[in-house]
Amino acid sequence: MILIIKKFIIAVVITFLAIITSPSFSFSQMKISDIKNKIYVLDVYGKRFSLDKSKQIKTGDYLKTKKNPAILILNNRTKICLSPNSSIKINSLNLIDDHYEINLDYRKGDMLLSIPKNTKDTHNLFFYSYKVNNLINKIILSKNFKLELLNYNNELNLLFIDKKIKKIPPYSYTKIFEKKNLIEIYNASKVSNFSSKFLQGCVSILPKIKQKVDNSKLQYRCVTENGRLICGNR
Q: Domain spanning 27-233 has what CATH number?
């Protein structure tokens, strides 16, 4: 009987070790490639520590900065720039087959999220009650009484509380208000309002984009040019 119990315990231990050392068990952790300035962590176990390259981020980690901005580069080359007094939470970090699914909850302050275009990983971003699925490229978020969003070269689909979807065009500056499904979209013209909030190397300039012309607002009229009368929509 004792021999049977010992064999059972050994089998359980071997099974447990096989699980924790298998690739599928590493779903909730990712290594850090680089970090600049201090980022403070509170994990799901109540443990507090400062991130460094020897640490890994995992599901449930709450990350924040204090007086200084910081840069965090993950092992998959995703870059997260945080302004002073900013915070995000790793809602979940799962390894699915050969790629990660990362769910980030943006809490407060200012954040720049830069994701490689050729990444295999899926990055989903949560803020207020809204969600952006499979974000690629670069986005800047600033959260105070309203949320400001500077969108680089990607079209975003925001899912609102009432299930309506709003498209955020590339190279646009957007204001989103928390209490109502109210959104204002402008053409993004400069990044100077954001560049001073992050460390150098985070914010890149916007390319010169030709403004789209709304033909429905054009009026038919005639003007004189070089002694000739020219008519058309203007």
A: 2.60.120.1440
Assess contact for 150 and 198: CB atoms under 8 A.
Answer: no
Which residues touch 219 (CB under 8 Å, ≥6 apart)?
233, 234
Q: What is the pTM of this model?
A: 0.75
Q: Which of 73, 78, 67, 68 is closest to 52 using CA atoms?
A: 73
Q: State the Cα–Cα distance between residues 73 and 41, nearest whole angstrom.
A: 15
Which DSSP symbol is given to 85?
T
The whole-angstrom separation of Cα 217 and Cα 233 is 9
Asked if 72 contacts 52 with a C-beta cutoff of 8 angstroms, the reply is: no
User: Residue 173 in contact with residue 187, Cβ under 8 Å?
Assistant: yes
Q: What is the pLDDT along the chain (234 residues), one digit of tens a residue?
A: 555 545 445 544 444 444 344 444 344 789 999 999 999 999 999 999 999 999 999 999 999 999 999 999 999 999 999 999 999 999 999 988 888 999 999 999 999 999 988 899 999 998 877 788 888 889 999 987 778 899 998 888 887 656 677 888 899 998 887 666 667 888 888 888 888 999 998 998 887 765 443 444 445 455 555 555 455 445
